[in-house]
Amino acid sequence: MSDSTSTFVDGVVETIKTVVYALLIAGVFRTLFFQPFWIPSGSMKDTLLIGDFLFVNKMAYGYSQYSCPFGLCPIDGRIWGSEPERGDVVVFRHPANGQDFIKRVVGLPGDTVQMRSGVLFINGSAAPQVQEGLFTETYERQGPIGTTPICIEMSVSFGDDCNKMKSIETLPDGTQHAVLDAGPTRLDNTGVTRVPEGMFYFVGDNRDNSTDSRVAQPSGVGLVPYENLIGRADRVMFSSAGRSLFFVWTWRMDRFFKAIE
């Protein structure tokens, strides 16, 4: 083998090793520390918008089989775990369909949860809402999926304003966050659900456009087991309102590095 051929082979081998090492490091980082997550739907408006990009803190609640891609971690139950606090925004694995969802945890083990006329009741006490005007967006197809928002208005054309009532909801521990309401729906009133040990109750902030624990599986989320929690969403790193992140003119600079409350 000539020197030039040997040099070429050595270069290829070194390149392959570098790529393999980089993939291994990225895999360890994603498994143990932070997982990237792109917001695909409007169920958490206006806390999270379609096109927000964030890293999920996987150290917050410890590790389970779902900490690895495709749920392949050889972990029985959960290790180094701590439970979420009420009000945390959490990414979890849907118990039935295997998709990753992001919602707000409102019901902890031992709690009772109910919706009455659009107001959340926890352990029999209302989580009060104080109105804060309107949340207004353009009625158009949003994000790569191209979904359209739900509006208060009965008839909306593309390009029109789409409005929802915005309120600040206060949970029993005093934490606050915005919730949106587009008018009466069947999910504004639910039965009382007692959250058993090892389970959690989740709802979306955009209450009329969220598939969550208010509806049982398989059409809804139902109660979510502790081991299905992947991590806590703490901060938006990047945000784009366009169909592609390469549309620089659609970047929402005011949301870069925005804390999630």
TrEMBL record:
Gene3D superfamilies: Umud Fragment, subunit A (2.10.109.10). Keywords: Hydrolase, Membrane, Protease, Transmembrane, Transmembrane helix. It is found in: Membrane. CDD domains: S26_SPase_I. Its main location: membrane. The chain crosses the membrane at residues 20-39. It is a single-pass type II membrane protein. GO terms for biological process: signal peptide processing. InterPro entries: LexA/Signal_pep-like_sf, Pept_S26A_signal_pept_1, Pept_S26A_signal_pept_1_CS, Pept_S26A_signal_pept_1_Lys-AS, Peptidase_S26. NCBIfam families: sigpep_I_bact. This is Signal peptidase I. It comes from Boseongicola aestuarii.
